[in-house]
Specification:
This protein folds into two domains: about 15-105, Arc Repressor Mutant, subunit A; about 110-250, no CATH class. The chain is about 40% helix and about 15% strand. The chain is built from eleven helices and eight strands. The strands form two sheets. It has a five-stranded mixed β-sheet, sandwiched between helices. Helix 9 (about 190-200) links the parallel strand 6 and strand 7.
Length: about 260
């Protein structure tokens, strides 16, 4: 995965009238929609991974982000060590028709947001993913469905779902996989409980959560940092053998950690 990196100043504050005027003059491209949607679905994006997702060099990305900021659709800023980040404004969310709350991401969540985005880009670049028209359902999208217009408590939501369409040629046709990016070790009992929750779920997330007889997830895939690998392996070993067969573990892809 390319490691394009650039630093950007925080957005300058402008009047709402100025933003509306700029937005009216902005012509959106497919790349704009792709990038804005990615930032919305993944909470935010570090600019090096955003450049990789849009397949543009750093200098080109600076111009793209400047247009987004001028139109009032996005903000950028240095939120900690490493590259700058981009996140959407309320106007950006309205543009995409997304119900998500627009806000600057918490510094405490940046490492995890980055890791999940890196996993998404790595999977989407895969030949089988593209050939079989798989698609990514983000945690944010799952939580919006679970809320269903209100606040609904959910035992655990995976970092994402990977959906495989029912194609005759697909080895995974019709399957849904739960995706988890694990950066640091959690207590054994908690990790085992999370795994059991996902492995035994039968229905989609939502106010009614209508379930069937078959498990929702054909596989639960953990992508781990070195610090979390041991506890994830021990947790899988603590599961009943039939459940272990639906667990997969591999290292986080390049670019997930900084």
């Amino acid at each position: 995965m390319p490691a394009a990196q650039t630093a950007l100043p925080a957005i300058s504050h402008r009047s709402a009238k100025s933003h509306r005027s700029a937005a009216g003059r902005m012509r959106l491209t497919d790349r704009d929609i792709q990038g804005l949607t990615l930032c919305a679905e993944q909470y935010a994006a570090p600019v090096d991974l955003l450049a990789a997702a849009l397949d543009v060099p750093p200098e080109r990305l600076r111009g793209i982000l400047a247009r987004w900021r001028q139109a009032g659709y996005a903000e950028t800023g240095l939120l900690g060590q490493g590259p700058a980040w981009c996140w959407l404004t309320p106007a950006g969310m309205r543009l995409l028709g997304r119900p998500y709350r627009a806000r600057q991401p918490s510094v405490s969540r940046l490492a995890h947001i980055r890791a999940v985005l890196a996993v998404r880009l790595w999977l989407e670049a895969g030949e089988l993913y593209q050939q079989e028209h798989a698609w990514w359902r983000s945690e944010r999208r799952i939580r919006a469905a679970a809320a269903g217009g209100g606040r609904v408590a959910v035992a655990h939501v995976p970092d994402a779902e990977l959906h495989w369409p029912s194609l005759e040629t697909s080895p995974y046709g019709g399957q849904i996989w739960a995706i988890e990016a694990e950066l640091s070790p959690k207590p054994l009992a908690r990790t085992v409980g999370i795994m059991r929750t996902m492995l035994t779920r039968t229905g989609d997330y939502g106010p009614t959560e209508d379930g069937g007889r078959e498990p929702r997830y054909a596989q639960v895939v953990y992508l781990t940092a070195p610090a979390a690998a041991s506890i994830v392996g021990r947790s899988i070993g603590a599961l009943p053998i039939p459940l272990q067969h639906r667990m997969s573990v591999r290292d986080l892809p390049r670019g997930a950690l900084r």
